[in-house]
Amino acid sequence: MGIGDEVPSPQYSPVTVLNIPILLDRLCYRQPSFLVDAITEHEAGRRLVAVKNVTVNEEFFQGHFPGAPVLPGVMMLESLSQVAAMLLLHREDAPPNARVYLRGINDAKFRRQVFPGDQLTVRWADRSATRGYAFDVVNRKQRTVMRGGHLSW
Fold it and tell me: Catalytic site residues?
């Protein structure tokens, strides 16, 4: 199954152990800016699948938009970049004190709006044959929310 294929009901593969305190030291994020709730699949340096539960009590919903809350696209991009940073920091060749900073995003496409109560699944996979990594974001109904694009670090 490749990036962008419809996703069957979750059947989680074993997760490579990630040391969360060390990971948080290497990531430049803290609450309330940390936008990843769980890692469900991880193959070091090749693939990472994470989950973000979208709840109505998150601060940005107060102003985006009152009475009709929608997750800001920039928050989806931020969650996506945090998952990518985790993947990059856990490659075998990553220096132990490395940090990752997002430098740019090109050609990302938003396909659907995200609302409180949705659960986003953020998937990154190595696509070595075509260079780099591919990503997509799907909601709980397994409908694509965002796909494609290129993030640079």
Answer: 64
Q: What is the pLDDT along the chain (153 residues), one digit of tens a residue?
A: 445 555 444 444 555 566 667 677 777 777 778 898 888 888 888 888 999 999 999 988 888 888 899 999 989 988 988 888 888 888 888 888 888 888 888 788 888 999 999 999 998 887 765 556 778 888 887 788 887 766 777
Where do the domains of the chain lie, and which CATH numbers do they carry? 20-152 (3.10.129.10)
Which pair of tokens denotes residue 80? Answer: 């996506």
